[in-house]
Amino acid sequence: MTSAPLLRVRDLGVDFSTSQGAVQAVSGVSFDVRAGECLAVVGESGSGKTQVLLACLGLLASNGTARGSALFADRELIGAGERSLNAVRGTGIGLLTQDPLSSLTPHLRIETLLTEGLLDRGLATRAAARERALQALRDVEIADPESRLRQYPHELSGGMRQRVALAAALMCGPQLLFADEPTTALDVSVQARVLELLALVRSRGVGMLLVTHDLGVVAGLADRVAVMYSGRIVETATTDELFRAPKHPYTAALLAAVPRLHGVAQSRLVGIAGDPPQPSARPPGCAFAPRCGRAVDRCSDSRPELTASAEVSPLTTAQGDSMDGRAWPITAVACHRPLQDRAEIA
Amino acid sequence: MSTTSTLLQVERVSVRYTLRGAGLLAPARALEALSDVSIAIPEGGRLGVVGESGSGKSTLARVLLGLVRAQAGRVAWEGRTVDYDDATAMRSLRRELQVVFQDPFGSLDPRMTAGQVVGEALQALAGPVATVAAQDRIRAALSEVGLAPAFANRYPHEMSGGQCQRVAIARAIVARPRLLVCDEVVSALDVSVQAQIVNLLHELSERYQMSLLFISHNLAVVRHLCDDVAVLCQGRVVEQGSRDAIFGDPQVQYTRELLAAVPEPNPTLQRARIALAVNVSRVKR
User: Fold this and answer.
1) Average pLDDT over chain B, rounded to an integer
2) Residue B71 has pLDDT above 60, yes or no
3) Cβ of B160 under 8 Å from any chain A Cβ?
């Protein structure tokens, strides 16, 4: 995959002005997403992962401001006006959110919800838009699409709503899909169906930025993973590499927390003690240090920068592109004492 | 196994909901939410009840708590049939049988601090307690769920989802129940917090010989916590047995499908599963 990235995010930051002063929700986030590729951004609640998506779409809350750069098809999204953002929203980048009941307007029929994007932009006639909506519903494997078009969101089950929301996100044919916790509110069996549909969408060349707190969800779908903690990327790697040998202790802890069906039926899960720091009260060093079993003095004194791993293979560096002469590595970790091999994790 | 006695027994319980018809004059329809369901939990035992949305899991919890009446069958507590119309008997049962729900924000009163939430439950269940002793017990309950005493003065909106869920557990265990019903208590939580709560429930159950009825759609979570598992599908128990039997050798196709749906952190396995499903859906078209 040597194509130019669809989305190129560099040094993205998000600040919120609150009654307690300015709060940095996100800092120094950089990544690329290419066509047909799925990048997963993984982190706990409050890690800033959703703010990254919202900043790219110009959808931050009114007290939020974005810094840095997010280039989509050579168009700068950060600081762009409503008009140029609207040219990207839906048509360039589709958005699928966690809760389909709140993302689907309750008093509009499914037909209106699916076709309004095309009709408002004058991209299709009513008849053509309806035809496209029927096809979109078939694509997300909804039976009897004709009668579904006449229904309202509350008449559908949770899993069906999420599939309709996916169909709506894809109606204007975006090149890139932002999926924000798309399966979190769903049962495991419905979740599995939605993940399969997302894989199908990706196989048609749509790039994907998948945001989730569950590494289990990431495993089958993502090509690369960026792990976020307290507003920063702390590790990025290919999915196989990350699951085989996580370098950041936080990544290893997140992996260990996922309940498993295989292996020893140990009765204890490995939780991560404590809570992430408030963005307004981050420690001066590594934000994970207070919860980290490997932390030494240095960890709480100086913040580790995201640096490429020593053993980056030639293949990986070849895939990392460079911009402004700076190579963007695919395998990197922000830790003073990264885990070296599997034995250390156990 | 041990010779512990059965604490709670559900015998052939059926629940039908009456649904209004589609139009004003359309006839009402009946929905069989539970049909002929029987489960048993021994003293100190942990039973997992798994199934998809609509399988009747939550209805089962509601029947136990007396929030929904069963049309048939009976619930027995230590061998005696529970009479949900007997207010006195129910008050003493509530001391022994408590519940934690899925949505921690929804189940806590936004106007009450964590200390008030726990204190209210203590007064209601244990009767009047001297203020000083009550404060001690509230602090003890909060510390038992891993919350510092300072949390007693916090309101739900000042806490994270995991912290709210800990308060809900503290409220439920403050009067030392013998059975805790947990209805999807970790489904809304982050994976890392989910692990903390699952461990906490395990510890409390061990420490106080407290039985658990753990309702979940995720079999992997149940595997880490429960000794026995009952699988519900469309209101019926389709399979039940020990943890080892259900996970080692599932007999029913539905159980196998639920197992296959668990998102495991294994790229090779998950990719193969998704690729298979994608191919199947291509062939279908």
Assistant:
1) 90
2) yes
3) yes
User: Would an 8 Å CB–CB cutoff place B185 in contact with chain A?
Assistant: no
Chain A residues near residue B198 by CB distance under 8 angstroms = 259, 269, 271
User: Residue A117 pLDDT more than 50?
Assistant: yes
Instruction: Give the pLDDT of residue A181.
Output: 92
Give B239's contacts (C-beta < 8 A, 6+ positions apart): B230, B231, B246, B250, B251, B252, B254, B255
Q: Provide the residue range defining the domain that includes B192.
A: 6-103+178-284
Range of the domain at A28: 7-92+172-260+270-345
Across residues A209-215, what is the average pLDDT? 92
* CATH number for position A34: 3.40.50.300
Interface of A with B in 230-249 (CB under 8 A): 239-240, 243
Nearest CA of chain B to the CA of A87: how many Å? 32
Give this complex's ipTM: 0.82
- 3-class secondary-structure state, position A134: helix
Question: What does the DSSP assignment read for A298-346?
Answer: HHHHSPPP-EE-TT--HHHHHHS-EETTEE--SSEE--SS---SHHHH-
- Count of the separate structural domains present in chain B: 1
Q: What residues of B are in contact with residue A203 (Cβ under 8 Å)?
A: 278
**Parallel/antiparallel/unpaired status of strands A7-18 and A21-33:** antiparallel
Whole-structure pTM value: 0.87
In 3D, which of A140, A230, A179 has the Cα closest to residue A57?
Answer: A179
The answer to whether residue A199 is domain-embedded is yes
Q: Which residue is closest to A196 within chain B, CA to CA?
A: B274
Best CA proximity match to B204, nearest among B227, B229, B173, B182 = B173
The answer to whether A188 faces chain B, any CB pair under 8 Å, is yes
In chain A, the number of structural domains is 1
Q: What is the CATH number of the domain that holds B34?
A: 3.40.50.300
The per-residue pLDDT for range A10-53, each reduced to its tens digit, is 999 999 998 888 999 999 999 999 999 999 999 988 899 999 99
